[in-house]
Amino acid sequence: MKKIVFGIVVIVALITAGVYQYIQYDTPVNAKENNIKKVTKPFKVASIEFNPILNERDKNVEALAKLTEEAFKKGAKLVVAPEMSTTGYYYANRKAIEPFVDTIPGKTTDVFAKLTKKYDAYVVFGMPEVDKKTNLYYNSAAMVGPNGYVGKYRKTQMWETETHWGAWGDLGVPVFDTELGKIAINICMDSAYFETARLAGIQGADILAFPTNSSAQAISALPARAQQNGMYIVSANRSNTEHGFHMIGGSAVWSPEGHKLAEAPVVMTEKEDVDKPTITYATIDPKQYNNKNKKALKERRPELYKELMQYVEPWDYTKNTTPHKVVAAALQYEPVMGNKAKNKEKVTSLIEDAKKQDANLNLVVLPELSLTGPIDNKKDAKSFAESADGETVQFFEDLAKKYQVSIVAGLVEKANNHLFNSAFLISPDGSVTGKYEKTHLSKADEKWATEGSSLPVFETKELGKIGILIGEDAQFPEASGVLAVERADTIAIPSAWNGQYGGEMEISKKMSVNPYPDGSMVTWDAVAIGAQAYTVVANYVGGDQHFLGGSSLYTIDPLYGLDQPVVAPSNKEEALVVKYETLQNENWFNQELLLLSRRTPYFVPLIQE
To answer: Which of 9, 28, 327, 77 is nearest to 185 (CA)?
Structure first.
């Protein structure tokens, strides 16, 4: 795949495509209306890694049906097959694919309906669909169950290849209520946009079926999508090369916590191609459908997410167009709880150390509530509270001037008779460039803090545009999504993380050209890649609350070798110094392309209160 060429072509395709003025919806099956008896015991699922032969629809359907039956015979109650599994993937134009499209439902779904009825099971598979009314073609996936055709999904977020023959999906993300639970479907490139999985999540999806033809990006995002929405994901990829495009296998099943339950081998080069089908099995437990990550969806704040509907492209004159070279330090230390003087000493020492490491240091990020440590009661919060011109802000203003750096630091702020968990951005001249009040509070914050009411991005001469999230904000991809729409080049995340959300990344280390370091955290990485903004995280370490460190830089494209994440240890105080250059306008995927290709008409449910 020639990524840069594709990147240029996709801009033209996306601008030409425009946005639809209407949305169609496939009708989900309703369990109550159809008296569906829900499964309560664990059941087996299967991911079929199947490599279809291009232009051989009938042979592919026959072969895939045999593999599906094999999985059913071994007890699988849900089988997922790859994207475009009935035809192969690459077609130059409508004429090329015309002989191989089918309606949904149609002849192809009829073949699988015989099997699903016989084995009382479900299958989801990708195929090119023709719409009878419009004669438009879609990159679609069909679901077939014990009673026949259940429903379909049309790919919302297309990749460049498909745009030469297919129309953009117009069904939204339907969720189908089945015996196995609520099942939704996304396809491949959809996972690069948090919104498509989120649309399933807010409708209560228990399982996301994920047909794909992925070279890394799509399947690497799945642990975050599972975790963000508290749902299982069953992904099916290919493991060979077609027209120079290599698909890396790695079909997998992910738990609602983002843990890998099963995975097929990852094959990173054409020399490793595996043309023989592979079936990967795992077990899904319906008792896990009601989990803490799914419950966290109730803590979303749709009133803050309206910017997700804004489509300013391609005429966004507010965006920064000048890349900035950033040398950042994420300060990681054990807080002396409630002792501002001791914490000031630690902070000053760490900044001095960072400046020694690199004299060009121009950004410093500290953990949240930087001089007090986390607070879990109103009495302490009141005693530590300060105004925006109090001693803590003055301390950081003096440090910024002394070391000629921008600083992101936090405190308990008292403003308008309310207390906020706030973070300030201070410029090298000692002036306050911006203030952010935490919008998604932790359980401890809720005991004393008022929620913030906006997700601002601040423009600086030295660093470009900076957005700030604090701690639990990172759990909610809508927050970083808003910062992306507002064109943040860098996102700073002051944190006090001891494992209360997120978890270590479990994608195969082979999947990324520049491997993720040990201790990389799914949630923080998802902020960076999801917003296509370099993300600097500062976290505490140790102490009675057992903070987990891991202060870090997460980057926009380690998968294909553009840049390299950096992660501090979990047990050491240090100033982690990292370097990056913002924007990366020439890369095959970046914030510009992300925003150009978002299908905003379908995101309305995300901002409804």
So the answer is: 28
Both tokens of residue 293? Answer: 């990550």
Return the active site residues.
83, 155, 188
Cα separation, 378 vs 388, whole angstroms: 19
The contacts found for 2-9 with CB under 8 angstroms, 24 or more apart, are 3/560, 3/587, 3/588, 3/589, 4/586, 4/587, 4/588, 6/160, 6/161, 6/588, 7/587, 7/588, 7/589, 7/593, 9/160
Residue linked to tokens 């439902």: 105
Whether residue 305 contacts residue 319, with contact meaning beta carbons closer than 8 Å, is answered with no
Domains of the chain in start order, with CATH, are: 43-298 (3.60.110.10), 304-308+326-606 (3.60.110.10)
Give 66's Cβ-side CA count (13 Å radius).
8
* Cα distances (angstroms) measured from residue 370 to each of 246, 396, 423: 46, 10, 9
* Cβ neighbourhood burial of 66 (10 Å; 0-12, 13-18, 19+): exposed
Positive or negative CA dihedral for 119, 120, 124, 125? positive
Contacts of 126 (CB under 8 A, 6+ apart): 81, 82, 83, 84, 85, 86, 139, 140, 141, 187, 211
pLDDT tens for 446-496 read 999 999 999 999 999 999 999 999 999 999 999 999 999 999 999 999 999
Task: Give the integer Cα–Cα distance in Å for 93 and 41.
Answer: 46
pLDDT of residue 34: 58
Going from the C-alpha of 526 to that of each of 191, 226, 231, the distances in angstroms are: 11, 12, 16
Q: Rounded to whole angstroms, how far apart are CA atoms 490 and 513?
A: 23
Check: CB of residue 142 under 8 Å from CB of residue 109.
yes
pLDDT for res 3: 42
